[in-house]
């Protein structure tokens, strides 16, 4: 594709949009309390889920026609989707027009199946992994995920490191009174394993609707506690959601994602597609745009691009958590794609 054959997407607030999150399934083998109810959800029928070919076509449009340079696969739990390396191979071949380089392809996973799949995922072209692990204590881990799988997740982290993923990041949703006493433990774990912790503030996307401000552990508190044990210095922050810090002794880095206490909406460059093909311009968006309908009605690339442009034209300034006009989205985290 010629370098002058692409355009860029800019929202009404002059933010360049260039990072795409694609949920490839709504199903998950965990039942994390901040994500879905204990009994699970009514899963989408297989026919409602985008096929690999449909996902690949949309990804091609975003990368080759709109110059997106990052794609992250999410769920649900993406590794429960059969033949995942086939999809990764399709996506990893996409080239960013403005740079001539392959798209940066990453995935968020709970890590429980990585011992058997990590090598195949890397070989297929996956660049990076974020592995969710909310406690290092088996009892707390089971309470948060409703699954007794801590050892599998720890083994999955080891597998990712062994096959050569670098960096490996670990996602920790911090919840007051549940795992907030493990903040320094996770920093120590990251330093010893050579992985990068990402501490995430608890957001109002739980299916049970139990979220309150009192359950949020502020990012500033997290950094203060770690800095008291392992001195930190900030890293220059770009459009990515994490505020990054490195250890002054050179033993790696970590990040905090202050979605609630310090929203990073001013720099947001992300949009997302749900497993059933709904296009959302924000994790907390109330409205969505049906790309699956266009795909299955044999719409042209130009028609799909027009719908994407119209959707990005509605992207709002921010999510308004904490304000009186904040509205919870109708979907939980697992139904949107983290």
Task: Characterize this entry briefly.
By secondary structure, the protein is an alpha/beta fold. The protein is built from 10 helices and 16 strands.
Describe the fold and architecture.
With 338 residues, this protein is an alpha/beta fold. The protein has one domain (8-336): Aldolase class I (TIM Barrel, Alpha-Beta Barrel). The chain has ten helices and 16 strands. Helix 2 (84-92) runs parallel beside helix 3 (114-124) and helix 3 runs parallel beside helix 5 (150-163). It is globular, with a radius of gyration of 19 Å. The two termini are 31 Å apart. The model has no long low-confidence stretch (mean pLDDT 90).
Label this structure with key terms.
single chain; 338 residues; alpha/beta; TIM Barrel; twelve-stranded mixed beta sheet; two-stranded antiparallel sheet; 16 strands; 30% helix; 19% strand; globular
Q: What percentage of the residues does DSSP assign to strands (E)? A: 15-25%
In the CATH hierarchy, what is the class?
Alpha Beta
N- and C-termini, Cα separation: 31 Å
Range of helix content: 25-40%
Radius of gyration (CA) equals 19 Å
Number of DSSP E strands? 16
Number of distinct helices: 10
Ordered list of secondary-structure elements with their pairings:
Blueprint: E1 9-10, E2 16-17, E3 19-23, H1 52-65, E4 70-74, H2 84-92, E5 95-96, E6 101-102, E7 104-109, H3 114-124, E8 128-132, H4 138-145, H5 150-163, E9 168-174, H6 183-193, E10 196-201, H7 219-229, E11 232-234, E12 243-247, E13 253-257, E14 270-273, E15 278-280, E16 289-290, H8 291-296, H9 301-312, H10 333-336
Parallel strand pairs: 3-4, 3-14, 4-7, 7-8, 8-9, 9-10, 10-13
Antiparallel strand pairs: 1-2, 5-6, 11-12, 12-13, 14-15, 15-16
């Amino acid at each position: 594709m010629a370098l002058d054959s692409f355009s860029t997407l800019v929202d009404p607030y002059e933010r360049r949009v260039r990072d795409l999150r694609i949920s490839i399934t709504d199903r998950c083998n965990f039942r994390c309390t901040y994500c879905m109810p204990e009994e699970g959800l009514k899963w989408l029928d297989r026919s409602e889920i985008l096929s690999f070919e449909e996902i690949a076509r949309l990804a091609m449009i975003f990368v080759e026609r709109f110059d997106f340079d990052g794609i992250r696969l999410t769920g649900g739990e993406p590794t429960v989707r059969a033949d995942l390396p086939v999809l990764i191979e399709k996506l990893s071949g996409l080239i960013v027009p403005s740079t001539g380089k392959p798209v940066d392809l990453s995935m968020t996973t709970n890590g429980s199946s990585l011992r058997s799949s990590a090598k195949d995922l890397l070989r297929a072209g996956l660049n990076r992994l974020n592995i969710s692990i909310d406690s290092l204590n088996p009892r707390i881990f089971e309470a948060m995920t409703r699954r007794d799988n801590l050892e599998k997740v720890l083994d999955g982290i080891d597998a990712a490191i062994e096959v050569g993923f670098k960096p490996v990041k670990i996602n920790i949703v911090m919840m007051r009174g549940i795992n907030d006493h493990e903040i320094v433990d996770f920093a120590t774990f990251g330093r010893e394993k050579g992985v990068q912790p990402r501490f995430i503030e608890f957001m109002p996307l739980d299916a049970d609707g139990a979220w309150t401000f009192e359950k949020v552990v502020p990012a500033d508190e997290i950094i203060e506690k770690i800095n008291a044990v392992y001195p930190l210095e900030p890293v220059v922050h770009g459009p990515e959601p994490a505020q990054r810090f490195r250890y002054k002794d050179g033993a790696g880095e970590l990040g905090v994602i202050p979605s609630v206490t310090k929203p990073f909406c001013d720099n947001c460059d992300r949009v997302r597609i749900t497993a059933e093909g709904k296009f959302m311009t924000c994790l907390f968006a109330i409205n969505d745009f049906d790309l699956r309908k266009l795909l299955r009605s044999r719409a042209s690339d130009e028609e799909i691009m027009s719908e994407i442009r119209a959707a990005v034209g509605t992207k709002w300034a921010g999510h308004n958590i904490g304000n009186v006009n904040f509205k919870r989205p109708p979907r939980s985290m697992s139904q949107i794609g983290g």
